[in-house]
UniProtKB/TrEMBL annotation:
Classification of source organism: Bacteria, Bacillati, Bacillota, Clostridia, Eubacteriales
Keyword Transferase: yes
Keyword Glycosyltransferase carried by entry: yes
Record organism: Ruthenibacterium intestinale
Pfam families: Glyco_transf_4, Glycos_transf_1
Gene Ontology molecular function terms on file: glycosyltransferase activity
Domain of life: Bacteria
Name of the protein: Glycosyltransferase
Assigned EC number: 2.4.-.-
Length: 392
């Protein structure tokens, strides 16, 4: 039995792909007999406390990044709690105040660090430097920081080859373990979603028999290129009410996207549904026919996995470093232009009911390769190797 301390800048009640990933990792490790402590910053508390296996740490809210806070990275009270937990390995999932603290704690406790890189940070630099000139100034310093974080870790994990490409650009030459993201997909499988709930969602959203409904689920951030998705949709489907696009999520681009939808005159076909609780998401996926994304910042999208478990064929803007998540004809297709996007949407609409049902079954079956058992076995292997390496 191992004790694992997992460090992240944000955790529930805030929702994100990283949070969902950490929850799945925590549950999988505990089901395998290990003990887990999540250590996270919380802008909603002014004291350290542990509840349900989570250590919440006081933090200053970061207004520009929803759900994130900055916590004192050298806190001795927190170190005492970690020391009492006595972890065998410390696992960093975000690189900032919690990541810095994890490095501090690892030095004091003489324990190994495993570092998972979840984010292509070059796509997020505009949050700290809105202008391109500022981003050019910030990027070298950011690369130096991530190189330092990676080089201080005993082992590194990434969910796709895109991590290798990014860290090589940052100057990291070490071995990187590629372990695709997983998530508990059982709630999204067809047999576990009520047909009545699906019918209710379709009625609420105005999806009629014969319509082709497309959805995107994720944070409404600039890096997600949702504006490109809306533009491509409008260029191909504007004026044909048979086609609908539903965008689920919240974030800083919400108002800009609402203006874009209005300016393109597609308000009757493109809807911003806002944030929907994770437990309520399954029938929304099932009410749709396709999952589409124009984002080039993904590592291994968890919302995409949920959509696939729900049977949705994926239309993904081509990202050469992340293309292995799509197998053409099996779980989706890639597109590089508006014309290609439109052709894929129209191909879905032209299919017979039997062909659509067969496609959904095939896509759902594809997600078997992202099982929790396979995922946690690979992570545990990295933990064991990190512990052995540290003792040398």
């Amino acid at each position: 039995m191992m004790r694992i301390a997992i460090f992240a800048e944000t955790y529930f009640p805030f929702i994100s792909g990283i949070v969902t990933h950490i929850q799945t990792l925590k549950e999988s490790l505990e089901e395998s007999g290990h003990e887990v402590l999540i250590v996270t910053a919380s802008p909603k508390t002014n004291r350290h406390y542990v509840k349900d296996g989570v250590l919440y740490c006081p933090a200053i809210p970061m207004k520009r990044i929803y759900g994130y806070g900055f916590s004192n990275p050298l806190n001795l009270e927190r170190l005492k709690i970690i020391r009492e937990f006595n972890p065998d390995v410390l696992h960093i999932h975000t690189e900032f105040s919690m990541g810095i603290f994890a490095q501090f704690a690892a030095r004091k406790l003489k324990k190994p660090i495993v570092y998972t890189l979840h984010t292509m940070y070059d796509d997020y630099l505009f949050y700290v430097a809105p202008h391109k000139f500022g981003q050019k100034m910030v990027k070298p310093a950011a690369h130096l920081y991530f190189r330092s974080t990676a080089n201080k870790a005993t082992e590194i994990i990434g969910p796709s080859l895109k991590v290798v490409e990014f860290l090589r650009r940052c100057g990291v030459e070490r071995h990187i373990n590629i372990i695709p993201n997983t998530v508990d997909l059982s709630d999204f499988l067809p047999q576990n979603v009520s047909p009545d709930d699906i019918s209710s969602v379709r009625k609420t959203l105005g999806i009629r028999e014969g319509d082709t409904a497309i959805c995107f689920v994720g944070r409404l951030g600039k890096e997600k290129s949702i504006d490109t998705l809306i533009e491509f949709f409008a260029q191909n489907c504007k004026g044909n009410e048979q086609y609908k696009l539903f965008i689920i999520g919240d974030g800083p681009e919400k108002n800009n996207l609402a203006r874009q939808i209005q300016d393109l005159n597609v308000t009757s076909q493109v809807k911003l549904l806002g944030r929907i609780e994770h437990a309520s998401l399954p029938p929304y996926y099932h009410a749709c026919d396709l999952f589409a994304t124009a984002s080039l910042s993904e590592m291994n999208s968890i919302s995409m996995l949920e959509a696939m478990a729900s049977g949705l064929y994926v239309l993904q803007r081509l990202d050469i470093y992340n293309k292995n998540q799509i197998e053409a004809g099996e779980n989706g297709e890639t597109f590089t232009s508006s014309k290609e996007f439109g052709a894929l949407v129209f191909a879905q609409a032209a299919m017979t009911a039997e062909q659509k049902a067969e496609r959904r079954e095939r896509v759902t079956a594809f997600t078997n390769r992202y099982g929790k058992k396979e995922f946690v076995a690979q992570v545990l292997n990295v933990y064991e190797r990190a512990i052995a390496e540290y003792k040398k």
